[in-house]
Task: inverse folding
């Protein structure tokens, strides 16, 4: 990890970007994320777009959970989704790899392009979508099998060719778990600690060589040390993958993400129905130091939500 | 009196009475009851213990009776010899034991794929909002309560006679008993499948596995011990069924070894039924010894089920 950090530090920072970042931080003294909590970084490089969301809405039955989201998610970026509980972060995240299809009442409207192709197109097989867009869940959910079989399951079912031992070792190494488990690969995964289980789930996910990893509050059940390891891991993985992460931890979003989207619950006037709305989407530094919307500022400074 | 004394404890006798009354009413609703009710609690507990004692006493009496009565005949002849009315002291249960094994083997071979298949469909594939799926569920639950003799008649009418026309063969007995235990096996398998947490399915699907792969490689392996436990318990129950088998051709006196598709077979319970109905003392002894064989068989199967459950139980 340190390796990667030094690379980031070594990256030249244009003077203009630095000015913009620092000046507002003084003005917004009550914002709870201090500037030194930001990862040292240059300006966000907007490479090619991984996802393009055009007026995407997700409903469960008649109830709209997320309304009219338009945003681009970039390759080799970590994109954070933040917002109060129930604003539809998980719903939006799950619509990116068609996990919503598992809920019979869920419906997605609007256009959701992945590298230019509509992943809700009529000829698209959701199974193929999930092969390239992996997912890590809030609660570690290892399979009730050996550590080895947990990692090997994905490559076996998706028909990845090659030496399985090698694939398993590579995935566990990249997830930073190899040294801890190499002597007990045949043990049941349920004997691991929560943090190890979550890294196993990440290893399991990267073993199928996805292009995008979606993470729904991956650290919410973990202690700060395990959380730190997973954050380091994300920063390493982003060299190869695009990562979208849902988090309730502002510091975490500030530390790891390049772009941050802030969603919020909107109510109708009679408070009878509620739905999530994208309020602001920008560079993480901008969102946390100089947000464009007062609601964003209120939320990240802890005044609401 | 000033207003700030409003919350002070009640002082007058009348208020105390009212408060006590209110408390007693609330307590009677929530079950923290005064002395008088404790007696009825004790009574209820005594009744429960009595029920338990009657059940245990019944079981103990039966086992002791069978051991005392049947012990003179507990030897290898009992298992290796066929029945005989001339040579009663050497008569045994060989064809009956083989017949039971044939029927039970056939039952297991039938109910495993059918029962598990139906359970997988209902749990993993069926859209619960469709009326026909709800109808299936309701029917299966009701079928589990249909008396076994009804299945015997069904077997006689449709399996022994037309359209299957198998005749009075062990296979017909196996199919009949399979139909009888199928609802139980489906219900037990569904329970085992439902015990696999949804997060396992999500984790598998999120890796790009198909629903079929998820069912076969994650859900079913995780549910196997539960399913097998249910199957064994259902089958152990079915071993004792005599009535439906009598209807589909289990005759009570067969001296030759059975064969799956040829007519003429008997099973342990039908054979015991026959011996027990005869007047001679030696036949009574033989019947008691047969009861011991059956008890041992059921005990072995149930122990295996318990062992399976403990050995492979998955804590989620
Ligand atoms: N399976 C479902 N069926 C029906 N409604 C659902 C379902 N899942 C979520 N919802 C609704 O959609 C809305 C958004 O839920 P979602 O789980 O996406 O919120 P969230 O932002 O992830 O919240 P949290 O931070 O608590 O995880 C909520 O109002 C919720 O009640
Ligand atoms: Mg959520």
Result:
């Amino acid at each position: 990890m340190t390796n990667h950090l030094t690379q980031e530090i070594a990256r030249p920072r244009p003077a203009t970007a630095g000015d913009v970042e620092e000046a507002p931080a003084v003005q917004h003294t009550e914002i709870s994320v201090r500037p030194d909590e930001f990862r040292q970084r240059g300006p966000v490089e907007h490479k090619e777009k991984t996802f393009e969301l055009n007026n995407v809405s997700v409903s469960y039955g008649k109830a709209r959970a997320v309304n009219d989201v338009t945003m681009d998610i970039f390759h080799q970026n970590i994109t954070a989704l933040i917002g109060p509980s129930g604003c539809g972060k998980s719903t939006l995240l799950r619509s990116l790899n068609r996990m919503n299809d598992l809920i019979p009442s869920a419906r997605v409207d609007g256009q959701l392009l992945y590298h230019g192709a509509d992943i809700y197109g009529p000829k698209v097989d959701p199974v193929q979508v999930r092969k390239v867009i992996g997912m890590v869940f809030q609660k570690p959910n290892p399979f009730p099998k050996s550590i080895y079989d947990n990692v090997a399951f994905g490559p076996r079912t998706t028909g990845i060719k090659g030496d399985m031992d090698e694939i398993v070792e590579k995935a566990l190494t990249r997830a930073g778990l190899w040294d801890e488990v190499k002597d007990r690969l045949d043990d049941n995964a349920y004997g691991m600690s929560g943090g190890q289980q979550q890294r196993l789930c990440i290893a399991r996910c990267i073993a199928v060589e996805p292009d995008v990893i979606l993470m729904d509050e991956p650290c919410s059940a973990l202690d700060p040390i395990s959380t730190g390891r997973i954050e380091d891991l994300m920063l390493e993985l982003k060299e190869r993958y695009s990562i979208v992460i849902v988090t309730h931890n502002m510091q975490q979003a500030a530390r790891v993400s390049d772009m941050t989207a802030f969603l919020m619950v909107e109510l109708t006037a009679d408070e009878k129905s509620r739905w999530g709305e994208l309020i602001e989407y920008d560079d993480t530094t901008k969102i946390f130091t100089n947000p464009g919307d007062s609601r964003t500022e209120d939320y990240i400074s802890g005044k609401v939500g | 009196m000033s207003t700030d004394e409003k919350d002070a404890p009640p002082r007058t006798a009348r208020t105390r009475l009212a408060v006590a009354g209110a408390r007693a009413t609330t307590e009677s609703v929530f079950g923290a009851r005064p002395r008088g009710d404790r007696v009825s609690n004790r009574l209820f507990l005594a009744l429960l213990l009595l029920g338990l004692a009657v059940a245990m006493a019944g079981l103990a009496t039966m086992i002791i009776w069978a051991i005392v009565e049947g012990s003179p005949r507990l030897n290898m002849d009992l298992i290796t010899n066929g029945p005989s009315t001339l040579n009663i002291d050497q008569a045994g249960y060989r064809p009956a034991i083989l017949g039971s094994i044939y029927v039970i083997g056939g039952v297991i071979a039938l109910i495993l794929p059918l029962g598990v298949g139906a359970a997988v469909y209902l749990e993993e594939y069926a859209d619960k909002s469709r009326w026909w799926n709800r109808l299936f569920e309701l029917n299966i639950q009701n079928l589990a309560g249909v008396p076994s003799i009804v299945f015997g008649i069904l077997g006689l009418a449709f399996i022994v006679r037309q359209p299957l026309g198998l005749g009075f063969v062990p296979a017909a007995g196996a199919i009949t008993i399979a139909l009888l235990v199928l609802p139980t096996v489906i219900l037990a398998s569904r329970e085992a499948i439902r015990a696999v947490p949804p997060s396992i399915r999500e984790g598998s699907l999120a890796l790009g596995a198909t629903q079929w792969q998820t069912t076969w490689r994650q859900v079913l392996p995780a549910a196997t011990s539960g399913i097998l436990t249910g199957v064994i318990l259902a089958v152990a129950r079915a071993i004792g069924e005599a009535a439906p088998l009598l209807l589909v051709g289990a005759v009570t006196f067969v001296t030759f070894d059975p064969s799956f598709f040829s007519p003429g077979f008997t099973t342990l319970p039908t054979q015991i039924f026959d011996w027990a109905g005869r007047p001679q003392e030696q036949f009574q002894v033989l019947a008691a010894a047969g009861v011991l064989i059956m008890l041992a068989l059921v005990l072995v199967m149930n122990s295996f089920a318990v062992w399976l459950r403990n050995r492979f139980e998955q804590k989620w």
